[in-house]
């Protein structure tokens, strides 16, 4: 399928590794000009080098920290300098520390709300006028399957990610008439460094081996395994595509059938 995004300008947040990196690679393979951002310049530079050597799309990068008060101005300048505008915005952020509801201190709530919710909304609002003017845009927000089925031991994530669901749905109704879509993509157990960190935390807390944790987790997934980043990124690329122009206001799961809800 031709996704119709060759030459489109895409911004992928938190794309030095994991799901963000995978999405950036998938969009570039479709011919998009991708701006990667994150806190690890070496990884970002290596990702861009790999993309540019493939010769299908094009990539640039900028050091930008979602926790930094200057994140939005930094991104605005980089987008203007390196892309000249934006067609596709992929909102992605790292997850908060594991823990229970009692572990959710006021400082943690404020810190993670700022980086996981507020900064994403602020950047999107800054980029929307350009999308409206050109009559085309894709806003894809990566959240978590915890939005529809809270995950044990991830109280902070379960609290903050659903805020993005309400925002994304509301936004979709406001911008659909401009040719802009807004969707939420919910990963389940996709094998990334972040998932390894979570599995290690469970192993440490329970005294079980990492291999045992992984086997037990895989048994709970109807597909019988963890997902691959490439599989997840392919879904993201479609939701950012021209053929997906009538898909908006949706929450799309990529979890191997793990969620029990409808």
Structure description:
- This protein is an alpha/beta fold and 262 residues long.
- It has 2 domains: 9-189 and 228-254, 3-Layer(aba) Sandwich (Rossmann fold), CATH 3.40.50.720; 191-226, no CATH class.
- Helices cover 47% and strands 15% of the residues.
- Strands 3-2-1-4-5-6-7 form a 7-stranded parallel beta sheet, sandwiched between helices.
- Helix 3 runs parallel beside helix 4 and helix 4 (106-134) packs parallel to helix 5.
- The mean pLDDT is 96.
Summarize the SSE layout with pairings.
Elements: E1 9-12, H1 18-29, E2 33-38, H2 41-54, E3 58-63, H3 71-82, E4 88-91, H4 106-134, E5 137-142, H5 155-175, E6 180-187, H6 193-206, H7 210-219, H8 229-239, E7 251-254
Parallel strand pairs: 1-2, 1-4, 2-3, 4-5, 5-6, 6-7
Helix pairs in contact: 1-8, 3-4, 4-5, 6-7
> What is the CATH third-level topology name of the largest domain?
Rossmann fold
- For the record, the CATH architecture of the largest domain stands as 3-Layer(aba) Sandwich
Total helical segments: 8
- Structural class, from helix and strand content? alpha/beta
InterPro entries: NAD(P)-bd_dom_sf, SDR, SDR_fam
Protein name: 3-oxoacyl-ACP reductase
Organism: Metarhizobium album
Family: Belongs to the short-chain dehydrogenases/reductases (SDR) family.
